[in-house]
Amino acid sequence: MKLSLKQLGVYVFLLVFGCGAGLFGSRYLLLQNPSFRQLKNVTMASPPESVVPNSSNGAIGATGGDNVNFIATAVQKVGPAVVRINATRKVANPISDALKNPLLRRFFGEDEQPIPQERIERGTGSGFILSEDGELLTNAHVVADTDTVQVTLKDGRSLEGKVVGVDSVTDVAVVKIKASHLPTVKLGNSQNLIPGQWAIAIGNPLGLDNTVTIGIISATDRTSTQVGVPDKRVSFIQTDAAINPGNSGGPLLNAQGEVIGVNTAIRADAQGLGFAIPIETAARIANELFTKGRVEHPFLGIEMADLSPIRKQQINQENQLNIQQEAGIVIKGVTEDSPAKRGGLLPGDVIQKVNGKPVKNSAQVQKFVESSTVGDIIAIEVNRSGKIQTFRVQSGAYPKRK
């Protein structure tokens, strides 16, 4: 079929007009859809708002007539109390030390110092306000090795903060700024968290202030050993909400906007996994740091592992033990000159109860010990080669790192 020039022009016009209308319509629908409008500033690690439950009654969809969902509501409540913390510290310059070698000094001259002996290291983290008069909570690694930091509030004010106390064992630190009538967070409860519940993280990754990410609680009671930081004394909350460098010290929230944990970027290789310090632990440590300036942790001196059939064989081979049980908490090692050693505990003992209460995993034992006070007598019931025995161990203070 032959087309006239006029007909061809009409077809081209209709084709162009149709494409333009489709593009315009798509853009119009995108901008008018409340779900897209509500979430355009939120980094999502979970299903979109259309399948997000109402925080008040669990219904599907947005809350209220203004189409504000529970994420936005939580962020509006807590966001003003989240701060950016910039820390500056002097660290030894390894290159400068290397140049002290006489062979290398020949290239630079004896009286010349080409490389500074110290270098300035700068870091950015997050924190949140506990009290109206300027008490802040953050991670220890954010403010370590410095006495003062720069604290930036959401309203743009930048204030000098004094580092009041640092506890590297739990990775908790507290900072004080001179201000009044500040916005504060509301502390929640992390004791009854269930995997699958919503989790909202706020922080300043890469210096991008008040960035919000969302996910779920992936697991609870992750031991320090499981997480890969055996030098810590924390049962971590695991979440899939994105937690990156700079998020450290920021709050992890529940659906009601209450703080349930302190985000900590402790594993650089964690892809899709984030960890948080339970708020009960963080708040207790923060209170001791503000009142005493330091924290004493009860210490037994045992290395534990949760048993399984495969794990039993591995532990027996690695530690030259003869464990028969296939479930429980085994003591893999006992530190020399420790409370556990003096109390009579031995490698291969399988812990059954602590202070008369049954325990199922090492995280529970760690919680029992951590909730006690230095000097307390802790009754530990063990199965030793098929025989049940109870040992009374007086806890000591966690040894200071050299």
Task: Provide a short characterization of the protein structure.
The protein is an alpha+beta fold. The chain is built from eleven helices and 21 strands.
- Looking at the structure, what is the overall shape? globular
Average predicted confidence as pLDDT: 80
| Terminal Cα span | 91 Å
Q: Approximately how much helix is present in the residues?
A: 10-25%
The proportion of residues in beta strands is: 25-35%
Placed side by side, the strands forming the largest sheet appear as: 8-9-10-13-12-11
Largest sheet: 6 strands, antiparallel, barrel
Number of helices: 11
Q: Any low-confidence stretches, pLDDT <50, length ≥5?
A: 8-65
Tell me the Rg in angstroms. 28 Å
- How many β-strand stretches? 21
Structural class: alpha+beta
